[in-house]
Design a protein that fits this description.
about 750 residues; alpha+beta; Jelly Rolls; Immunoglobulin-like; TIM Barrel; 4 domains; eight-stranded parallel sheet; six-stranded antiparallel sheet; 10 helices; globular
Length: about 750
């Protein structure tokens, strides 16, 4: 049901509910749904909630929940709907002992018509049986990705799921979560009634869903707004009435764009109404760095003279297209996506408007313009904030890694795909969809054919609701790639001999969080020397950190933390520089993996779970800018993240790149550099030139050449800067290397 206005009345049923664990599965047989049942032995829990955040903790299985409410007498004669925002994972619902039905899925809203099932003048008892089991798949021991000996015991070595069947994506299986890549990788259950539960009172006519399609007309710049509204007539009679439509600006000044009404007939049951109007001079939605994220409000009123139902929807007018090279065009303008992958928490009930805003404000400060959500769905307020703040969102459906490709799973997943697209369709921020996160990443032989089977049906399901936006059938196909040097790929990868694709949906590395955070999930006696079972469980990935990253432990825990964070910061910085130098050749978008750790973990975020920054945050913030000056060095192989070594007899040659994501050229910019002895601060040589930075470009503007190093040793820096003609700093950066 869409968000209503004055024509609907809502009773929020959140608060303190009673709950009881049903680990033996006896509740249904013992009629725990009965309103007469004594619940004296049930415990209290605040709802909405993920039960992991409560005293229940990490529990897989069934929990029964109960609450009671009274219906206002003023609601007599209304149609009443019991609305659930989301329940993870299978909900069975009873009202006053009457079974209402079942719903599967962790993120979708659902509701029941309870008009004739409530009591007035008495308590109504609502009971929910929430089944959130552990996925029944087998986790199987596999070989590590390199030959480094893994010191953990067998249960804590690398395991892969055989065939997942619970459609929960990151919430059931991913790298950085409790259990990580071990036999216990499904730990950290996200079960619970984690969104609001409401009783909604409506008239006999309810607007159930509104889809707002917009199209910019190339010939004259006008925009067509086409509104499809599903309207339910709960009565048994034909209703002849009218529909009114008002479209007005939400966040910019302007007169009402549309005021329109027409006569309609509503047959009993579900009806569809189509409203089409033209806005002659539309204000378009842009990402924050290319314009203003202009938004409109559409108010749809059914009924006259008194309204029978009213809904209000926010939308934006934009076009987003990808060409054959993978380049993105927003409203016809080519844009480069400086992106970030994001998950607020493994237990999303704890996310709030304030916590989302704090994260997005920091992203704005880092000049991020696009966010990839995968593989889960955030709360609606997140997408509304992205609408308002001008972030383009790439939404991935909750499928991740090793899912079954059975007919039965496809039957269950495809409708959920359509539901997700329908939930988020009207958000202006939504730019593109993906149906599966990494369908071909599978560590076992005879893997299921997810990309060839499941993904194709998911694609079709998404396209039936959204024929306009790009639907991507799964990482790492169709020009999509993961580059995580020193983490998921060897640290000695030669990037200049590595094929690069246009869409880099993951880059980054991993690091150990600060000691204060580390102590919150690793017991004191397991910290130092590291208990490798414990550390592997909490996401260290021994073979990746020491085999791929070659991070040195040092002589203390503090050294180990510092060494890991220093490497993470350096390799992320140099990944960014390399990818930005290859802007449109072929890189068109790039998304760091991740903004913050989704749980207390040794992770890959810029921030840990408690939003304490890693060193990588400061390193990335310095170079993830609309204008970036960077250096390409003369080494073969071209390896990033590690110390760069030159012999005194080897000439140093560094190409000076400047990448600009600005919409306009910068005339008379000044590019300057200096080569400095890092220890003594002695300036060896300098250079400066006046340049023009073309809009939306990346190119070489010269070289730093040093071929007389025969008597020198130690560390050196090339400090670089770009300013505009007025001296305003556009970018500063450095490159460090060692003569040995």
């Amino acid at each position: 049901m869409t968000t209503g206005k004055e024509t609907r009345m809502t009773l929020n049923l959140g608060g303190i509910w009673s709950y009881k664990l049903d680990s033996e599965g006896v509740g249904t047989g013992q009629k725990w749904f009965s309103p007469q049942l004594s619940r004296a032995d049930w415990k209290p829990m605040k709802i909405p909630n993920n039960w992991h955040l409560t005293e229940v903790g990490d529990y897989d299985g069934t929990i029964w929940f109960a609450t009671s409410f009274t219906v206002p007498h003023a609601w007599r004669g209304k149609r009443l709907f019991l609305h659930f925002g989301a329940v993870d994972y299978i909900a069975y619902v009873w009202l006053n002992g009457l079974y209402l039905g079942k719903h599967e899925g962790m993120f979708q809203p659902f509701e029941f018509d309870v008009t004739n099932k409530v009591a007035y003048g008495a308590e109504n008892v609502l009971v929910v049986r929430d089944d959130s089991p552990r996925d029944p798949t087998e986790y199987i021991l596999v070989n590590e990705p390199n030959n480094l000996s893994q010191p953990a015991s067998e249960p804590y070595k690398r395991h892969w799921a055989k065939d997942l069947t619970l459609i929960k994506g990151h919430m059931t299986d991913a790298m950085h979560r409790p259990g990580s890549m071990t036999k216990f990788r499904a730990d950290g259950n996200s079960g619970g009634i984690w969104k609001d539960v409401e009783l909604v009172a409506c008239n006999d006519v309810q607007i159930k869903a509104v889809k707002i399609y917009t199209k910019i007309v190339a010939e004259d710049g006008s925009a067509i707004v086409s509104i499809s509204a599903d309207v339910n007539n709960s009565s048994k009679r034909l209703i002849e009435t009218e529909v009114k439509l008002f479209i007005r600006p939400k966040n910019f000044k302007g007169d009402t764009a549309i005021a329109y009404n027409k006569a309609i007939q509503l047959q009993p049951g579900l009806n569809n109404i189509r409203l089409v109007k033209t806005i002659k001079k539309p204000q378009l939605w842009w990402t924050w760095d290319h314009g203003k994220p202009n938004l409109y409000i559409a108010e749809i009123i059914i009924g006259a003279p008194e309204p029978l139902d009213t809904v209000v929807e926010t939308f934006g007018i934009k076009s987003i297209q990808k060409d054959e090279k993978g380049q993105w065009y927003l409203n016809g303008r080519r844009i480069f996506l400086r992106g970030m992958r994001y998950i607020s928490s493994l237990w999303i009930s704890e996310a709030t408007a304030e916590s989302y805003k704090a994260d997005l404000d920091k992203m704005l400060d880092m000049t991020i313009n696009s966010i990839r959500i995968g593989s889960h769905v955030e709360k609606d307020i997140f997408y509304s904030l992205c609408d308002e703040m001008g972030f383009l969102v790439w939404q991935v459906f909750p499928l991740h890694y090793c899912y079954s490709d059975s007919d039965e799973l496809i039957e269950r997943a495809a409708p959920m795909m359509r539901e997700m697209v329908g939930m988020l369709y009207n958000h202006a921020c939504i730019g593109m969809w993906s149906v599966f996160k990494e369908p071909k990443i599978y560590g076992l032989p005879n893997r299921p054919n997810n990309y060839g089977r499941l993904c194709q049906i998911m694609y079709e399901s998404a396209r039936t609701y959204d024929p306009i936006r790009w639907v991507h059938t799964g990482d790492y196909e169709e020009g999509v790639q993961n580059i995580m040097i020193g983490c998921c790929q060897p640290g000695d990868t030669d990037l200049k001999r590595t094929p690069i694709k246009p869409q880099i949906v993951e880059f980054g590395a991993m690091g150990i969080p600060d000691l204060e955070t580390l102590k919150t999930f690793i017991p004191e006696d397991k910290l130092w020397p590291p208990d490798w079972d414990t550390w592997e469980y909490w996401g260290l990935f021994y073979n990746l950190m020491f085999g791929f990253g070659r991070v040195e432990m040092g002589n203390s825990l503090e050294e180990f933390i510092n060494n890991s964070q220093t490497y993470e910061a350096k390799v992320i910085k140099e990944q960014i520089e390399f990818l930005r130098q290859h802007k449109y050749s072929p890189v068109c978008s790039m998304y760091l993996y991740y903004w913050s750790d989704a749980c207390p973990i040794i992770g890959s975020g810029l921030f840990d779970y408690y939003r304490r920054p890693y060193k990588a945050y400061y390193a990335m913030k310095a170079v993830y800018t609309p204008v970036l000056v960077s250096l390409e060095w003369n080494k073969d192989p071209y390896v990033i993240g590690w110390e760069k070594l030159w012999r005194p007899v080897d000439p140093f040659i560094g190409k000076l790149w400047v990448t600009s994501d600005l919409d306009t050229s910068v005339e008379n910019a000044v590019l300057s550099w200096e080569l400095v002895n890092a220890a003594t601060k002695e300036i060896i040589m300098t250079g400066s030139q006046t340049v023009t930075l073309p809009a939306d470009s990346s190119q070489v503007y010269g070289e730093v050449v040093w071929d007389d190093m025969s008597k020198l040793r130690g560390q050196y820096l090339v400090n670089m800067k770009v300013t505009d003609k007025d001296g305003k700093e556009l970018s500063t950066n450095y490159f460090d290397f060692t003569i040995y």
